[in-house]
Amino acid sequence: MNVDPRLRLRHLSAFLAIARTGSVGQAASELSVTQPAVSKTLRELEDILGGPLFDRTGRRVVLNAAGTEFQRLAGSAMSALAQAQDSVRARAARRRRLRVGVLPTAATRLMPDAALRFRTAHPHCTLRVSTGPNWLLLSQLREGALDLVVGRMADPQRMEGLTFRQLYAEGIVGAVRAGHPVTGVADTDTLRRYPLILPPAGAAIHQTVRAWLVSIGAGDVIPAFETVSAAFGQRALVRSDAVWFISRGVITDGLDRGDLRALDLASPLIAGPVGVSLRAGHAPSEDMLGLVEALETEASRAPRDA
Q: Quick one: DSSP state of residue 284?
């Protein structure tokens, strides 16, 4: 099986960047090149392959079936090249490395505690930890840019080619500062009276929160801010009367310190399962199995409200 001699690494890099971001413009920014250059590279790649890889919807591009399969295979090829490069470099340093993507809800406590436990048993393996939205982390895992993701189980299309192992189920809270004037159950009037901070579109919990607001008659409320950033959200809460709907794990430390408190909600909000995603068909290394074990141990030590 021969590779078309016209195919270059720049074609794969541009394609994978577009697949990750869903935008030619954002891919150009990520690659530090011009947008026309990325568009030209994509056209060249689709000409080489003999068909389109994306469906165009306005300014956005969405992977079609061929593009999804090409992302998986091209990502694996790029990952293999990166691993070959890292292997030579790591051999010189006699160190190993795992690239881990972590959803913000697991990044405040679970992942740091598990990383410290893992470090004791695997002192020669460096963890490279990054955070981001669930959809981006899973895309990076599928293409081989990450070895493991601690996040949520996505819809079947986004989970194609991946496996999921649940660690715990977690709830969503309506968080406010200590001393906030709201007492009792938070209702529609409460949510209209104070500024709201909601998860943005694309966040794993966005649809769940929006559906809950609709169910209590507050679906038309316009948020003051949209974020799942722990740093931004907690700072905004302690300096205002805002109400932030966010996964409990993101603000666990603030709740434990007493800086924040969770409102009583008319009905519970369930964010869903948090767990470990791996690439299907790839045998996990000893280090990966060790990290999964550390994550499971730490998850079992800290019961969470669902």
A: P
| Pairwise CA distance, residues 24 & 64, whole Å | 15
Burial of 159 (0-12, 13-18, 19+ CB in 10 A): middle
pTM over 0.85: no
Work out the number of other CB atoms within 10 angstroms of the CB of residue 75.
24
Query: What distance in Å separates the CA atoms of residue 195 and residue 5, rounded to the nearest whole number?
Result: 57
How far is the C-alpha of 43 from the C-alpha of 191, rounded, in Å? Answer: 48
Whole-angstrom CA distances from 12 to 52, 80, 135, 143, 236 are 14, 13, 20, 11, 41
Coil, helix or strand at residue 124? coil
In Å, what is the CA distance from 158 to each residue of 146, 204, 282, 288?
Answer: 15, 12, 18, 22
Strands (E), 94-242: 96-102, 125-131, 148-152, 162-177, 185-186, 196-198, 225-226
Following DSSP, what letter does each residue of 29-62 receive, concatenated?
HHHTS-HHHHHHHHHHHHHHHTS--EEEETTEEE
> In sequence order, what are the beta bridge partners of 276?
150, 165
CB neighbours of residue 223 within 10 Å: 18
Distance CA 267, CA 269 (A): 7
pLDDT in tens, the chain (306 residues): 677 888 888 999 999 999 999 899 999 999 999 999 999 999 999 999 999 999 987 778 899 999 999 999 988 888 888 888 877 776 655 568 899 999 988 888 899 999 999 999 999 899 999 998 888 999 999 988 999 999 988 888 888 889 999 998 888 999 999 999 987 788 888 889 999 999 998 888 899 999 999 998 888 999 999 999 989 999 999 999 999 999 998 998 899 999 999 999 877 888 778 999 999 988 899 999 999 999 999 998 865 543
Q: Smallest Cα–Cα separation from 71: which of 55, 87, 54?
A: 54
